[in-house]
């Protein structure tokens, strides 16, 4: 495993824990989606378990411990995340972890637990997990990963060292995307992914730029009375709901900025600035802010049992009504 180019500063912070003999018993890694938080956490876990780390702190890849990690059979390395068929980390998963932590590590180095999407622990699981933090066991490091730290109980957050992964410099991302043989416009990908490199790479691989363009065209057609919101909602039914909400939110933010006549470099969608400016001329700020609040509310409901099809009908009908007929 190698560090991602924008993670060096974060890695230096992690290495300093070891240099000052202050390895955290609980570490909370946060940051936007697509910054490689899990990659960094595994890199740190491997270095803690490695018998002979390299000069830069990364695992050697050759010792007995590293060979076990590569074979995914190291007894002192555990990972917990929601099961494929479920949306949350359950109390049974945490109880299983607690039972394992009552035993001593099998090797002389550390034992490391990575909990990915830690915010998805249900209430019972979070309460049970809190005991792990209140009664830490020897030579054990627990790493929690989340892009929604506000969803974690304050009692858990307060017991963790914090490491925030910042959005990287765009030039670093552009260079890295080029190294991954990405042919799409890196500027557009960077904006669409809101600065998250791995998300930008995923968008390039899945041809998301074309989908984004088609969805924006349909959205504008609703505003211009060329398409019916219910029909568009039906066409969007099988598309990723979180992406659609994210895109509409960014379009509305840019519309508000257009109303205030802010500079282009402050927009999420620079390539759509002309049609957004045109739309902004027929919209009232009060209505835009109300629509923005609706999108934020719907975003919070995405992980619930709400009927997503009906939700998008409501959103697009509201958008239709927001634009005056000519």
Largest sheet: 5 strands, parallel
Oligomer: single chain
End-to-end distance: 59 Å
What is the percentage of strand-forming residues? 5-15%
- Proportion of residues in helical segments: 40-55%
The total strand number stands at 5
Cα shape: elongated
User: For the largest beta sheet, what order do the strands appear in spatially?
Assistant: 2-3-4-1-5
Question: What can you see in these coordinates?
Answer:
- Helices cover 51% and strands 8% of the residues.
- It starts with 7 loop residues before the first helix and ends with a helix.
- Helix 12 crosses helix 13.
- A five-stranded parallel sheet has the order 2-3-4-1-5, with helices on both faces.
- By secondary structure, the protein is α/β, with parallel strands linked by helices.
- Strand 3 (111-116), helix 5 and strand 4 (140-146) form a beta-alpha-beta unit.
- The chain has two domains: 5-166, P-loop containing nucleotide triphosphate hydrolases (Rossmann fold), CATH 3.40.50; 207-322, Zinc Finger, Delta Prime, domain 3 (Up-down Bundle), CATH 1.20.272.
- It is built from 15 helices and five strands.
- The mean pLDDT is 91.
- The chain is elongated.
């Amino acid at each position: 495993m190698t560090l991602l180019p924008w993670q060096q500063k974060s890695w230096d912070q992690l290495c300093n824990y070891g240099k000052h003999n202050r390895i955290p018993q609980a570490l909370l890694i946060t940051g936007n989606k697509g910054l490689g938080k899990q990659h960094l956490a595994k890199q740190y876990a491997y270095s803690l378990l490695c018998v002979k780390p390299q000069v830069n702190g990364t695992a050697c890849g050759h010792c007995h411990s590293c060979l076990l990690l590569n074979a995914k059979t190291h007894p002192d390395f555990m990972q917990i995340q929601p099961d494929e068929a479920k949306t949350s980390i359950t109390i049974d998963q945490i109880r299983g972890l607690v039972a394992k932590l009552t035993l001593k590590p099998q090797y002389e180095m550390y034992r490391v637990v990575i909990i990915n999407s830690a915010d998805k622990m249900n209430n019972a699981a979070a309460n049970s997990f809190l005991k792990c933090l209140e009664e830490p066991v020897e030579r054990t490091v627990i790493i929690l990963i989340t892009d929604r730290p506000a969803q974690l109980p304050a009692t858990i957050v307060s017991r963790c060292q914090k490491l925030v992964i910042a959005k990287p410099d765009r030039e670093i991302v552009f260079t890295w995307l080029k190294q991954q043989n990405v042919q799409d416009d890196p500027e557009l990908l960077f904006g669409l992914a809101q600065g998250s490199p791995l998300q930008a790479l995923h968008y390039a691989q899945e041809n998301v730029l074309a989908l984004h363009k088609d969805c924006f065209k349909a959205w504008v057609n609703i505003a211009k009375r060329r398409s019916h919101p219910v029909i568009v909602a039906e066409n969007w039914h099988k598309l990723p709901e979180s992406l659609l909400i994210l895109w509409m939110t960014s379009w509305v933010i840019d519309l508000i900025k257009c109303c205030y006549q802010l500079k282009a470099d402050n927009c999420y969608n620079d390539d759509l600035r002309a049609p957004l400016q045109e739309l902004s001329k027929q919209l009232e700020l009060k209505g835009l802010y109300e629509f923005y609040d609706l999108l934020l509310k719907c975003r919070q409901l995405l992980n619930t049992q709400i009927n997503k099809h009906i939700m998008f009908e409501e959103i697009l009908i509201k958008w239709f009504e927001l634009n005056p007929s000519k």
